[in-house]
C-alpha cells in the first residue's frame, strides 16, 4: 500500500492515500467526503461533465486545520503533555542516588 509522507509533492491525495494517512478505510473516507466532512476537490472530464469524475482530499488543508485546533485548544487539552515521562531510567538512577530503592514495574502489587 502506498504511504503518504511529508515529501509528497502534491497536497491533493486520493481517498486511499488519505485513508492510510489518518487511519481510516477508503470507504470511510468516501463517506466522509460525501457528507462534506473533508476538504475535497472534485475533478471531472470537461468533455464529459455528467461522468463520475474523481475526488481528491486536500491534505494541506486538513493539516492546517489540525494545527489550528491545537492552537485554540484550552489548557486541559494540552495537559496530556504533563503525563508523559521521557526519562524513566534517569528517575530510577536518581532514586538510587537518594538512597531509595528504584521502583520496578508492578512493584507492590499482589500476584493474581
Q: Secondary-structure element order, as H and E?
A: EHHEEHHH
Order of strands across the main sheet = 1-3-2
Please report the total strand number as a whole number. Answer: 3
Low-confidence regions = none
Instruction: Report the end-to-end length measured between terminal Cα atoms.
Output: 43 Å
Provide the gyration radius in Å. Answer: 24 Å
* Biggest sheet features: 3 strands, antiparallel
Q: Report the total helices.
A: 5
Mean pLDDT: 83
Q: What amount of the residues lies in strands?
A: 5-15%
Shape: elongated
The secondary structure category is mainly alpha
Helix content: 40-55%
Biased composition (Basic residues): 102-112
Protein name: Regulatory phage protein cox
Region (Disordered): 89-112
InterPro entries: Cox_sf (IPR038147), Phage_P2_Cox (IPR019679)
What does this structure look like?
With 112 residues, the protein is mainly alpha-helical. The protein has a domain at 12-70. The chain has five helices and three strands. Helix 1 (15-22) crosses helix 2. The relative contact order is 0.10. It holds the Pfam family Phage_Cox.
